[in-house]
Design brief:
There is one protein chain. This protein is α+β, with helices and mostly antiparallel strands. 51% of the residues lie in helices and 12% in strands. It is built from seven helices and four strands, in the order H-E-E-E-H-E-H-H-H-H-H. Strand 3, helix 2 (60-69) and strand 4 form a beta-alpha-beta unit. The longest helix has 24 residues, at 109-132.
Length: 168
């Protein structure tokens, strides 16, 4: 009884949830059905990202078809069994690799500042530190982010407004 199995949702519900996530992030997208009743692709052309909503966890065929039709994009796969909060973070991190934070900072300045002040700046730092680990080639960035983690966000942004723009 202690472990709850993920609840499967329907593909149409998953598609709607992903649309809500993308709209809340102020990202434009178009929809394509490469394999009807199996997947829906939400294409964020401005950032070169495709979010694949799939109704099963085996995505090898969908991956192949998506890559053939949309080469050189970043791909995200979210199945009907996945946790949507984790999926939202994966969408954000992937969009950030394509310049999303600069887009938000320059187009929606007030929302950017509210987002950073609400703790998201620290989540970005934590994710960066997780990705960089203890690799010597990232020593400068690791130290810079550890220092920034100890400061209020407005003190980090004052000398470097683009500090949160990049995700490795």
């Amino acid at each position: 009884m202690g472990y709850n199995m993920p609840t499967e949702i329907k593909l149409i519900e998953l598609e709607a949830e992903i649309e809500i996530i993308l709209r809340s992030l102020r990202v434009t997208f178009k929809k394509v059905n490469l394999v009807k009743e199996v997947s829906v692709q939400l294409i964020c052309e401005d950032f070169g990202v495709i979010v694949n909503a799939i109704n099963r966890s085996d995505y090898a065929y969908i991956n192949k078809i998506t890559m053939e039709n949309f080469p050189n994009y970043r791909y995200i796969y979210i199945s009907t069994f996945d946790d949507l909060l984790e999926a939202k973070e994966e969408i954000i991190w992937t969009l950030m690799q394509s310049g999303y934070m600069k887009f938000i900072r320059t187009k929606f300045e007030r929302q950017f500042k509210n987002l950073m002040m609400s703790g998201f700046g620290n989540k970005i730092i934590d994710e960066r530190l997780k990705r960089w680990g203890d690799q010597p080639k990232f020593k400068f960035f690791v130290e810079e982010n550890k220092e920034a983690r100890q400061l209020p966000v407005n003190m980090v942004l004052a000398p470097d407004p683009a500090f949160f723009d990049m995700m490795p």
